[in-house]
Design goal:
Keywords: Membrane, Transmembrane, Transmembrane helix. By secondary structure, this protein is α+β, with helices and mostly antiparallel strands. The protein is built from 16 helices and eight strands.
């Protein structure tokens, strides 16, 4: 091995690489939506607490190793910097750990932590020549330098390349100063050699070997920074998808939102066929009411109605397919197949009817006008899938049960009933364990507008 007299190519490219990584880091942070940025920040705060505990473990290990290592000097003869450095670092680590539980650590504090980490390590290494009463070049061969990579790797836990780069550059600069101290502390004898055997068997300094250490530190730092840059992209993407999934559940049912998030590709023309139950709800006489009431009162009534009905549908494993003005269409077993779709639908219907009557009584007791809720359930084979065109898709259900449920809901006005179900849906629900909350009334061979064949019905309420 010979002394290195010029920077190798990897070091020549470092400034550009550092600039690209820092710019990419800043760009990623800048384009994140605020809600995603908050979630990433929470993840990073948790990481800083983990780093704090690991740093505490490191300083305790350093303390134990120093206490166990043999001393070749008397305590009253020689100044011992290591105990003071370890005590100061222990105090700083405890402060840092405590602060990480109480607040978000500022960037300047994290950079300061990196500088103190490296300072502790290099003070410890520097003290070796005092501890063993050797010339300064003695500490250049200390294997404790390998701890540098622990401190650099700790910063990788945060998923930000800039802190990894800061740790690596600080370590490289620190070791460079350590080498500089060795070759300048005694100008008359810099102890530099070009002979590898002499270097290995004495306290001589081989500059090429020290440059190799710096190159290794910078190379590992660069690789970690690149890996962190790619991992951060995946982290941000994961957090963004998680936030999007939560937002989607506000516009779609949770089952549909989950399908959108986890599907490889969503396109028109793909559908799933399964047995399901369809529930339609409607406010009877809402349109005339809306025409004579102030807009704010109409929208308040509609919002209260939906707030009462929707949780009951979801409680019984139903999915809201769409809001149709004052109408609500819900599906049971369409987006995700179940063995109790009909029973779930009728249990939801029973609870909805009771809740609707109580809600109507409360509204009228408040001195506001209200109208009754109608409901209908039909069951059968449906197709669930995406419809529309490529830039505007919508998940929905298609099938005879869908149309029949809508027509049955309107048929309530003809019969003066509040809730109807097809006999098929009722029988299927009974087979699935459903028991009606109130006595039912059978309506065989009912004629329904828009339906050619008579339909056997059950009057639920």
């Amino acid at each position: 091995m010979s002394e290195i007299t010029q920077l190798p190519r990897p070091l020549e490219r470092w400034p550009g690489l550092v600039g690209q990584l820092l710019a990419a880091d800043a760009t990623t942070r800048g384009r994140l939506p605020e809600r995603v940025r908050r979630q990433v920040t929470r993840q990073q705060d948790a990481t800083e607490r983990l780093i704090g505990w690991m740093q505490l473990a490191v300083v305790l290990v350093f303390g134990v190793l120093y206490w166990l290592s043999p001393k070749t000097f008397e305590a009253h003869d020689t100044f011992q910097p290591v105990p003071y450095a370890l005590a100061a670092y222990l105090g700083f680590t405890l402060i840092r750990l405590s602060a990480s539980y109480r607040t978000h650590l500022a960037d300047w504090f994290l950079y300061l932590s990196i500088a103190i980490d490296m300072t502790l390590l290099f003070v410890l290494i520097w003290s070796f020549h005092l501890q063993y009463e050797q010339p300064p070049s003695f500490y250049l061969k200390a294997p404790t330098l390998l701890y540098v990579f622990i401190f650099i790797a700790l910063r990788a836990l945060r998923f930000e390349a800039r802190f990894v780069l800061a740790a690596g550059l600080t370590a490289a600069a620190g070791w460079g100063l350590m080498v500089l101290y060795v070759v300048t502390v005694n100008p008359e004898d810099p102890m530099i050699t070009r002979n590898y055997v002499t270097y290995m068997t004495s306290n001589a300094v081989l500059l090429g070997a020290e440059f190799d250490k710096i190159i290794s530190i910078l190379t590992v730092t660069g690789i970690l920074a690149l890996a962190i840059r790619r991992a951060r992209t995946l982290l941000v993407s994961s957090v963004a998808e998680s936030a999007a999934a939560r937002d989607l559940s506000r516009f779609f049912s949770p089952e549909v939102a989950d399908k959108i998030v986890h599907s490889e590709e969503i396109g028109v023309g793909a559908g799933e066929s399964r047995d399901a139950a369809i529930l339609n709800l409607d406010l009877r006489g809402f349109t005339p009411l809306a025409e004579r009431c102030p807009p704010d009162a109409v929208m308040r009534l509609l919002a209260e109605y939906q707030a009462e009905m929707v949780p009951i549908v979801r409680k019984h494993s139903g999915s809201i397919d769409k809001f149709l003005g004052d109408g609500i269409m819900a599906t049971f077993g369409a987006s995700a197949g179940t063995d109790s779709y009909a029973a779930d639908a009728l249990r939801a219907l029973d609870e909805i009817m009771a809740a609707a009557a109580a809600w109507q009584a409360r509204v009228e007791a408040d001195g506001r006008p209200c109208v009754p809720v109608n409901a209908a359930v039909a069951a059968g084979r449906v197709v669930f899938g995406a419809v529309g065109e490529q830039d505007r898709l919508e998940y929905t259900v298609i099938g005879e049960a869908v149309n029949l449920s809508a027509k049955l809901e309107k048929h309530n006005a003809v019969l003066g009933s509040r809730a109807l179900a097809t006999r098929h849906a009722y029988d299927t629900a009974r087979q699935q364990g459903y028991r009606p909350a109130e006595p039912i009334r059978e309506l065989p061979g009912a004629r329904i507008e828009g339906v050619r064949q008579p339909v056997d019905l059950v009057r639920m309420a």
